[in-house]
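#help-structures
NK: newbie question, is this the right format to request a structure? protein is Histidinol-phosphatase
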Amino acid sequence: MDHTFDAPPADRELLDFAVGLATRAGQVSAQGFFGEWGSRRKQDGSEVTEIDLAVEELVRDELARRVPEDAIYGEERGSTAGVSGRRWIIDPINGTTSFTRRWPLFSNDIAYEDEYGPAVGVINMPMSRQMVVAGRGLGCWVLTGESPDLKSGHRAQVTERTSARGARTQALNPAGWPEKLLTALHRQVFLMASMGCIVDLVTGRADAVVIAGPPMGYEDVAPMPVIVSEAGGRVTDLGGGPVLEGDMTVLATNGLLHEAILDLVEGLPRSRDLYALDDGL
């Protein structure tokens, strides 16, 4: 289930709590970015570092103290059952590849789902000290600084661009895109390297974001529905369906461009075999 506007507003106290969680996660990951740590390959071939594990453990410990009846899903430790019907989703370091290469483009992502669906979403970019946080019915906010606080933040707002031609569109994982998808978009929009992804969309630095190639994990997309919707935008998969129920591709836009970009990518393949000489697409 994606963001629902006719559901009751999220709990403001939980929104503040999520901001504090993301802040502490950012402090640990920022310190680790400049330090030394071990890493290994997981079964799926992706990297995990000691910092990923430390950040997830920190968030899990805080959740266990504050909301012990809620379920938890974390990228590194999987699912912990709850009895409340509510769930927290943790991506301790979204962009571990960037982190391990000392590229300051990673984030700490937290989402919260209640019986109505997505209720809270937080994306924290600790190296630029910028956080976007949204609560269902409470708006989307941009927070900055070492100790971000909703009282000192400002409302996030997507752009009002109506023409897809030349629209600033961030491309995430383009190395894994099929040529047809890359070409179709390149002919119409202004494709840009992804720097802040959803953060750049809701702060007006981008008009759209496209994520294709190797599938994202649920933890990667979980904060998106409430953040994008509360900032005035729209998010789906590349087929136009609910992003949390789709194939883990993403199209996030200011809303005004959404149908036009969906038309551009309709029926096109969304991933390629990075190891094949001929992707067969």
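mod (FA): yep, format's fine, and the tokens are attached above. The chain has two domains: 12-155, 168-265.
NK: thank you!
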